[in-house]
Amino acid sequence: MTAEDMDGAAVAATMFENLKADVEEFVQRFGRRPVLATVLVGDDPASHTYVRMKANRSRSVGIDSMRIEIPAQATTDEVVARIRELSEDPSVDGILLQHPVPPHVDGRAAFEAIDSSKDVDGVTFASFAKMGLGASGFHAATPGGILALLDAYDVPLAGKHAVVVGRSPILGKPVGLLLLERDATVTYCHSKTRDLESIVATADIVIAAVGRPELIQGAWIKPGAVVIDAGYNPGNVGDVEYTKAREVARLITPVPGGVGPMTIATLLRQTVAAALEREASPA
Ligand code: NAP
Prior knowledge:
- The protein has 283 residues and is an alpha/beta fold.
- Helix content is 42%, strand content 14%.
- Strands 1-9-8-7-5-6 form a six-stranded parallel β-sheet.
- The radius of gyration is 19 Å and the shape is globular.
């Protein structure tokens, strides 16, 4: 069997087209555009690139973006104060804090300065709790994008064994909770997991969320499995040994062009939802 690629770029492109129409309708109804504030702390070149990509994509669907750059030497208090201002700014609908922040800044404190009604990247405790309890709210963007991609390919989740490799707060942990909410049987693996290979070999759905090039070998994949590779390593290499895994899987995400575009699409969809919510119940 040779797997079909899960074309996240194409699925996201459809989402962007739909969002464009939603934004135009929003403009007609409310006489303004949704606004996404992106906050960048420090000079990390990769973070600059990510923020630029997100701003360009926002513009392409008609969302205004407000870019806030905070110097690398800023203290936690200064970062928190700036984000609180955005939380209180009535012209801002959504806030994205690009992570990681410099090591001397308390990233959790910075996230918690985001008002939960503007947490379109789904990073606050409040968003995480709502997601974990199956209440409506904003999903962490990459996990939300992964679920949207699985749905776009009609992948059945109920009763399936999903193995999530990685348990970070922004990716592994939340994607497992979203799969559990959809009635998958979820196993988490991490750096202390013993015999990763034999656990992955039992998975109907593999979610790779580690950040180690080709850690998950093609030979481990159960024939017919669905393989989602959220990892991104230098040189456009994922966490899964793509060419080998493709020979046995049913569906597989390429890197790049799989999960990445779905993350941005989810972020922007949630920004439009936040703007609509604010218009429906103004503060
Ligand atoms: P992270 O915070 O570094 O977490 C990595 C996770 O992998 C940890 O839970 C760690 O376990 C686990 N791990 C490390 N070595 C392992 C091993 N040998 N076997 C099993 N598990 C192992 O990383 P992250 O932020 O979740 O990101 C993971 C990857 O996803 C990165 O490549 C990142 O670039 C990519 N990413 C992509 C997107 C996107 O939009 N496409 C978004 C976010 C992240 P412990 O908890 O035990 O340390």
